[in-house]
Amino acid sequence: MVFIDRSGEDGAEILEKLEAHRKLISETLFKLRDNLKNADGAEMTSAVFKALEDFGAFEKVKQLSLYFEQNDESILAEEELRVWDMLMQLFDTLYETLKEKNIYHRKDILSL
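Below the sequence we write its predicted C-alpha cells.
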C-alpha cells in the first residue's frame, strides 16, 4: 500500500516534504501542549480534537477508506469510517462529561 508516489522525486524534494511534515507535527504538538495547560476537561477534549483536525486526520481516514474501496476491500473501507465515527462520539461524550471539571494532570506530561 503506497500513499505517496515518490517516482521522479529527488532527495531534495523528499527532504522538503519531510521538513514540511516535521514542521506541521511539531507546531501542532506545541499548540496542543499550550492548549492543555490549565484546561478543564472539556477544553482538553476540544484541544485534542483540534490537534486531530490540524493533522488532517479525518482527510487521511477518508483517503484510506477510498483506497480500500478502490482495492475491493469495502469492509475495511466501512470499518475505517465507523471507527472515526466512534471516536467522534467518544469526544462528544468526554466533552459533555468533563465540562467544567478540573482535571489534575502531572506537569511532566506536558513538559515536551
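The first helix runs from residue 11 to 36.
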